[in-house]
Specification:
Structural class: alpha/beta
CATH superfamily: Carbonic anhydrase
Shape: globular
Strand order of the largest sheet: 2-1-3
Number of helices: 6
Strand content: 5-15%
Number of domains: 1
Length: 132
Amino acid sequence: MRPLDHLYAKNRAWAERVSSENPHFFARLSEQQAPEYLWIGCADSRVPASEIVDLMPGDLFVHRNVANVVVHTDLNCLSVLQYAVEVLRVRQVIVCGHYGCGGVEAAMHNKKLGLIDNWLRHVQDVYQKHRA
């Protein structure tokens, strides 16, 4: 068995289940997306955006990064935000944090992790500014 075979099998089973419940789901989904919400959240694997709010593909436009950082210099995040609001016409923007975030913890404790240290500097700056 190849390393990803189990994921392919799970995807096939999921697609078959969805198709049996709603035979036209994938045809409609392939034609357009019309999410009501933009979700900006952490990349943490314990916070699967669509799953924890029980939404199907096409219902939630998602942007994720380590520590859920939103800064004015991040062209990726800004592009997602612009596309969601101006093109998809989302009605709500959700910024979702979570407990036990490793990125936030690393920033608060000044852990040196390598390349990501520059990214987490934004969190460190906010933490230092508002520290009691």
